[in-house]
Design a protein that fits this description.
Helix content of chain A: 55-70%
Chains: A mainly alpha (578), B mainly alpha (250), C alpha+beta (389)
Order of helices and strands of chain B: HHHHHHHH
Strand content of chain B: under 5%
Distance between the termini of chain B: 35 Å
Shape of chain A: globular
Distance between the termini of chain A: 23 Å
Number of strands of chain A: 0
Mean pLDDT of chain B: 82
Number of helices of chain A: 16
Radius of gyration of chain A: 24 Å
Number of helices of chain B: 8
Oligomer: heterotrimer
Radius of gyration of chain B: 22 Å
Chain lengths: 578, 250, 389
């Protein structure tokens, strides 16, 4: 266990009041955002970014469970070569809905809307995001979009794949495409507003002394993410709108029989959806930068390179959409350009991996759960990223695209990358969010099970892909069975593994040990306020006089608490180092 | 879209309970300057997303116009460029009056500010009414691109071979589709702008805006100019494409 | 490039499979190197620098521009080698050779329809000779499909409204999976089939058995029955351009310039004649969009293609021939062909020579198969071993 001697020990726990999971003022000893006021209304109408983050946490968890059930059903069906558990149509709906829910309603909002929302103001020393009402509106838009989509699912669901390729989506399939599309359209505005809010907040709300290069890398990566959100999301919004209108009034913009071009849709779609991959992975990279640094007590190696690589990814990310179309009859020269830029965008990611690894050098490495997730992330992301090179290589992509290789590749990025980062981040900031510690032993055990289950699920899919098994197949050739059985076995381990944190997180909200203000002896501003933070985050506006990741002894990293003296800023002496 | 208003509205009604320095300062900002900066950056970013939003439609327009130049010219020729030009003038003047409203807000002249806001709003309304007449005309002629879209043969120049007319009608329909999508979206933005101005007039009347605090007026102004600029692109692209053909048909 | 074949790779059954596998092996090596490097470093650091006391405070290390440059530049250079290799392979894969056997492919929910130039039609099963280059000209009647044969390492999307191409040269006889790999609806996973690679002699025998008119001949019938010939006359008196010798040549288009009359152009000229009108002609041709199926379009193009040189004097074979094979129109029953690929030869098929005496199509396209003039009954009266086009 890694509980450090807390410099700001919480008052001794009184008996749980039995009202609600997380605590009353009596138990925390200070007024905080959770116990500031009570009642459903105080949550549903809150403008506090921390509460909104929790609203997101609850709602995306529901979607994650739903998407996970779809995934397990898919894997169960693929246990045998024959399509014997569900009908082909049902299977097609399963993977479509798995994709739509996981991407639009879990992965895209996951880290930004939960951790980003909670932490950005805390990390930069602000009282809230720049537009609190807009922030709440984002959550409602997310919910509204989700409800539309759920409605489409309950009414039979759609079977277009999450990619909505035309003309299948516009002239075939069924008309719930419109409802699901509308859901994604509305949800898109939630992303846009969140991104806008983050950028403005980061620009205008930083605490005194918090210069751009003192910002945690988490902030840089969220800044880059937000840029993609506001630039890319409108394009997908208009594209989905076009698909919906095409379905309703048959105008032919994507229909070859009416003079339209179905491949144009793919260009529009991937113009957003490729950068969207970076919406999912960039925040995770930010989280990992924090975790690696915090749990090795080392400043991130090559801070500015890591920071600018995030921006480079955001910019290059917009120039590579055509690599999804190498076999879609686009010209070979266009293919070459997109391939070249795709290789270029791989470099900033590689730079990050090397910098994280170098950060560990001569650090003080703990094996806390968040660190295990972070180290797992580096390994999985490395493999996911390197297999991306296979797909960027034109001649090889021809054999690999639309096969299980693709499925394995993007799950390594999205699950191995984004989900690992999300879980690691959730563990790392759980003490801050809830004021309680999660059980460390169970945490490590869960991380291990998830890591093993994940690899067993998705590694065989690389092999299946190269062997030629196409994706989105309900029944498959006999020779692919062994690897599919391995994958399904892995999926059940992964599913079980994910239950573990689910259970102990809930448990810890009531029974977990009280968390000190700074359990990891970390440097970020969020650790300089109480756990959980008060409504306006800091009792006094913090003044930043130290660089990012400047680790010092705990005594020197003062917490801005209610009982502390009048000094508005933590002391900052020239301490001698060990 | 809807969030423009919210964005303004947020600034407009700060939480009365927690005002620190001024009743116009929201609780989480340190000072008015910071709040103003945040609001204006937010609006600029919002306009960037709007550009991307319209950008998708413009891209579609460019691609299909390059593919079917003749059909687009023919379809364009049936739009009334005079009404379009009238609306262009109306909008440009409204931009001027909006700018004056912002100016007088800065100067602290409540009366002039309200007058110019009202004038801007009225000009916006004139635009929408004209647009409404145009739309009504298109619906009457079954030029709205739905399943009962009709395009008379007489509306296709005689030089076009009978054989290719069916094909051309598809493309004309596509033009109309883009026309309605773009102008419809633009009109929606106008309506939202007018709605925002109603709020402004209400609060201006109550004397809310001062030389120190008039960010909502400024932001609405930015938004209004943007909507204006979009129209300045739409007008030639949609109305003037086939002006040289217009003589015969209308 | 002879590299050891990695486990978990499909059979290598085409000339490009080895090349694709070589690039794959290269990438696997790179992946292994870097992931092992990163993993070993992480484990090593994690153990060596594990936290030994709670109050440990390591020295900060600022970073190193030298290192950053190194791990930016080296990966970039490696990436560029992959890029160049991948791109050159891509050019090989998507540049069909000129001297290939042409096979027309039409995708449809949820089956693959093939037609050989000799007339044989198949569904979900494609017979090809070993050692011969085969070019597939593909389109679809409904949604986007994708044609993939893993053993050949080829794949190409099949897009409605346009032609896409793929080519391969099989190196091994056998049966290989054929998959649709672009999601196309309910029975997507049933849109599969086999590519049967045969010895050239066996292939010839197979070709000889069964089948209907060649696509060119069927196209010619279409050409007559649709009345195309009234305008597109063999002499220059017609209202439309003379089509003889048009294929593959540059055409001067009004307001556009020179355009090659390839498959895509001919297709557009039939479905949307006004789009590119040849100079000197009026845009009076009606559109045949919707009146001819994708397969018929391919047949018409095959026919126009077969009108090689001007002096050929288009063979006006009797349009009514071959009626005993009523499959010139669209829907052939899926099992009609499959069940009996070696059905008796229809008596009329062999005299349908529309082949140019050495026109555009290079001579002896199938000569690479080494069969020369095997005893196929396909040789018409045209010129030598010309396969009737």
């Amino acid at each position: 266990m890694s509980s450090h001697d807390p410099s700001n020990p919480p008052p001794s726990s009184s008996e749980p009041s039995g009202l609600g999971m997380i605590g009353s003022r009596a138990r925390f000893g200070h007024e905080n955002y959770i116990n500031a006021n009570y009642g459903i209304k105080s949550w549903l109408l809150t403008k506090d970014h921390k509460r909104i983050a929790l609203l997101y946490l609850a709602s995306i968890t529901v979607f994650f469970i739903l998407g996970g059930i779809y995934a397990l059903t898919i894997r169960l069906e693929l246990l045998t070569p024959a399509g014997d558990i569900v009908q082909p149509m049902t299977y097609n709906k399963l993977f479509t809905q798995h994709g739509i829910i996981m991407i639009f309603f879990f992965l895209i909002p996951s880290i930004p809307a939960v951790l980003g929302n909670f932490l950005i103001p805390l990390m930069i020393g602000a009282k809230d995001l720049a537009f609190p009402k807009l922030n709440l509106l984002s959550w409602y838009l997310y919910l509204a979009g989700a409800l539309f989509t759920i409605w489409a699912l309950l009414n039979g669901g759609i079977d277009t794949g999450w990619t909505f390729y035309t003309p299948y989506s516009t002239t075939f399939s069924n008309s719930y495409v419109v409802a699901a599309g509308l859901g994604i359209f509305i949800n898109g505005f939630s992303s846009i507003l969140t991104g806008l809010n983050f950028i403005v907040t980061i620009h205008t709300m930083r605490a005194p002394g918090m210069t751009w290069f003192r910002l945690p890398l988490f902030i840089w990566s969220h800044y880059a993410t937000s840029l993609i959100m506001i630039l890319g999301t409108p394009v997908i919004a208009i594209t989905i709108l076009l698909v919906a209108l095409e379905r309703i009034v048959h105008i032919g913009i994507f229909d070859p029989r009416l003079g339209g071009d179905p491949v144009l849709f793919q260009h529009f779609f991937w113009f957003y959806s490729h950068p969207a991959v970076y919406i999912m992975i960039l925040p995770s990279m930010g989280v990992v930068s924090e975790l690696i640094s915090t749990h090795s007590r080392k400043n991130v190696f090559g801070y500015s390179f890591v920071a600018f690589s995030s921006l480079a990814i955001a910019v290059f990310g917009f120039l590579v959409w055509g690599h999804h179309l190498f076999t879609s009859s686009q010209s070979v020269y266009a293919g070459m350009i997109f391939s070249f830029v795709s290789f270029a965008v791989a470099i900033p990611s590689a730079v990050k991996v090397f910098n994280w690894t170098a950060t560990l050098y001569k650090g003080s490495i703990s094996y806390d759960t968040p660190m295990l997730y972070a180290l797992g992330f580096i390994g999985l992301f490395t493999l996911g990223g390197l297999t991306g090179l296979f797909l960027a290589a034109l001649g090889l992509d021809v054999h690999l695209t639309d096969s299980y290789f693709i499925v394995a590749h993007f799950h390594y990025i999205m699950v191995g990358g984004a989900l690992m980062g999300y879980l690691g981040g959730l563990h790392n900031w759980w003490p801050k969010i809830t004021g309680r510690m999660y059980p460390e032993g169970w945490g490590r055990f869960g991380a291990l099970v998830i890591f093993v289950g994940f690899n067993l699920t998705f590694f065989p899919q690389f092999l299946l892909g190269y062997l030629g098994m196409p994706r989105r197949y309900h029944a498959y050739a006999e020779e692919f069975q062994v690897l599919n059985v391995m994958s399904t076995a892995g999926a059940s381990i992964l599913g079980f593994g994910l239950l573990i944190p689910g259970i102990y997180f809930i448990w810890s909200m009531r029974y977990g040990k009280f968390a000190p203000a700074n359990p990891w002896a970390a440097t970020g501003l969020e650790w300089r306020t109480m756990s959980p933070p008060p409504t306006e985050n800091f009792v006094r506006t913090p003044v930043v006089t130290w660089e990012a990741y400047e680790y010092r002894p705990m005594e020197e990293m003062e917490v801005i608490g209610p009982d502390k003296g009048n000094t508005a800023q933590p002391a900052h002496g020239e301490a001698t180092r060990t | 879209m809807a969030h423009a208003e919210t964005l303004d509205a947020h600034d407009a009604h700060g939480d009365a309970a927690t005002h620190h320095a001024s009743s116009n300062l929201a609780h989480h900002f340190d000072n008015l300057e910071q709040q103003r900066e945040a609001g204006s950056l937010g609006m600029w970013l919002f306009l960037v997303t709007e550009i991307m939003f319209f950008g998708g439609l413009f891209t579609g327009y460019i691609i299909y116009r390059t593919q079917h130049p003749q059909a687009f010219a023919i379809a364009s020729s049936t739009l009334d460029w005079k009404l379009g030009a009238l609306n262009t003038v109306v909008l440009i003047v409204s931009s001027l009056t909006m700018a004056l409203a912002v100016y007088f807000a800065q100067m602290g002249s409540r009366r002039m500010q309200i007058i110019f806001l009202v004038v801007t709003m009225l000009l916006g309304a004139v635009f929408l009414v004209v647009k409404g007449f145009e739309y009504a005309d298109k619906f009457e002629h079954h030029h709205f691109p739905s399943t009962n879209f009709v395009w008379e043969d007489k509306d296709i120049p005689a030089t076009v071979a009978p054989a290719e007319r069916d094909e051309m009608k598809h493309h004309i329909q596509m033009f109309y589709w883009i026309y309605f999508a773009m102008t419809g979206l633009h009109a929606l933005h106008m309506i939202i702008g007018i709605g925002a101005m109603m709020f402004l007039i209400f609060y201006a009347y109550r004397g809310r805006y001062t030389p120190e605090y008039h960010a909502p007026v400024e932001l609405t102004g930015l938004y209004w100019h943007f909507v204006d600029i979009v129209w300045i692109f739409l007008f030639p692209l949609l109305y003037l494409l086939g002006a040289h053909l217009a003589g015969g048909t209308h | 490039m002879q590299l050891p074949r990695l486990p978990f790779t499909p059979e290598q059954a085409s000339t490009v499979s080895g090349e694709v596998d070589a690039l794959y092996t290269y990438l696997v090596a790179i992946t292994l190197f870097f992931s092992v490097l990163v993993t070993v470093l992480i484990f090593y650091f994690a153990v060596k620098y594990r936290r030994r006391s709670e109050n440990e405070l390591p020295q900060p290390i600022a970073g190193s521009v030298k290192l950053e440059t190194m791990w930016t530049v080296i990966p970039f250079l490696i990436a560029m080698t992959i890029f160049v290799w991948g791109a050159s392979l891509y050019f090989t894969l998507y540049r069909p050779p000129k001297d290939a056997i042409e096979i027309y492919v039409v995708g449809k929910q949820w089956m693959w329809k093939f037609q050989h130039t000799e007339g044989q039609r198949e569904i979900n099963e494609l017979h090809v000779p070993v050692g011969a280059k085969v070019k597939l000209t593909m389109t679809t009647e409904d949604v986007i499909h994708s044609f993939a044969v893993p053993a050949f390492r080829i794949r190409s999307d099949v897009v409605p409204g346009r032609y896409t191409f793929a080519w391969f040269e099989a190196t091994k006889t056998g049966r290989y999976h054929l998959f649709c790999t672009e999601f196309c609806g309910t029975n997507h996973s049933g849109m599969i089939g086999w590519v049967e690679v045969m010895e050239p002699t066996a292939y010839q025998a197979w070709l000889a058995g069964g089948g209907s008119d060649s696509p060119a001949a069927q196209g010619e019938k279409m050409f007559q029955s649709l009345g195309c010939a009234t305008c597109h006359r063999a002499d220059t008196q017609g209202r439309g351009p003379v089509l003889t010798g048009v294929f593959g040549k540059l055409q001067r288009i009004q307001g556009v310039g020179d355009v090659t009359a390839d498959e895509a152009y001919l297709r557009e000229s039939i479905t949307n004649p006004a789009a590119k009108v040849v100079e000197g002609f009026q845009p009076i041709m009606p559109s045949y969009q919707g009146q001819v199926s994708e397969e018929q379009l391919l047949q018409l193009i095959a026919y126009i293609r077969s009108l090689g040189a001007p002096d050929q004097g288009t063979t006006m074979t009797n349009a009514g021939a071959g009626q005993e094979e009523p499959s010139t129109t669209t829907g052939i029953a899926p099992d009609a062909q499959r069940s009996n690929p070696l059905a008796p030869t229809s008596p009329n098929q062999m005299q349908r020579n529309t082949a140019p005496p050495g026109g555009l199509s290079p001579q002896g396209r199938r000569s690479s198969s080494g069969t020369g003039g095997t005893g196929t009954s396909q040789t018409g009266g045209g010129g030598g071993n010309s396969n009737n086009r």
